[in-house]
Amino acid sequence: MKKDIVTSALGILVLTLLCGILYPLVITGVSQVAFPGNANGQKIYVHGKLVGSKIIGQQFADQVVKNGTAQVDKNGNPVTVPDPRYFQSRPSATVPPYNAAATTFSNLGPNNVATEQEITSNIQAYLALEKPYVTGGH
Question: Rounded distance, CA 52 to CA 124, Å?
Fold first, then answer.
């Protein structure tokens, strides 16, 4: 019986060291050498300041400027448009949008007014960004 307990404890210790410590360290080391940008999360720096990641859903937008003046809405919030240089993730009804801490979904149904407004604005943003249609011709 004592031999079985010692063997079991030794097996747990060895497998914990191999699978829980050694294997992750080896894989991390290989990924750092082979794919240094990807292994560190594809960070985005602007003027030396970390502003986000290429692979995490977050809002990258440019402020709308007309005649040298930044545009604001009636509440004083800046008017923005999606920045086409970065991935634009799927629409989110979390408040605020692109909230990484919000791990749940909104449960808004297809007949909800907020869902309809969000879908309409997303379609308009897509059409403005992609310009997929040519009017008046082939």
Answer: 26
Please give the full DSSP string across 2-63, using - where no structure is assigned.
HHHHHHHHHHHHHHIIIIIIIHHHHHHHHHHHH-HHHHTT-EEEETTEEEEETTS----EEE
Q: Do 44 and 52 meet the contact criterion of CB atoms below 8 Å apart?
A: yes
pTM over 0.70: no
CA distances, 109 to each of 51, 90, 91, 113, 125 (Å): 33, 16, 14, 9, 21
138, pLDDT greater than 60 = no
Q: CB neighbours (10 Å) of residue 128?
A: 10
The one-character DSSP state at 75 is T
pLDDT value for 4: 94
| Interval 126-130 mean pLDDT | 79
Residue 39 CB neighbours (<10 A): 15
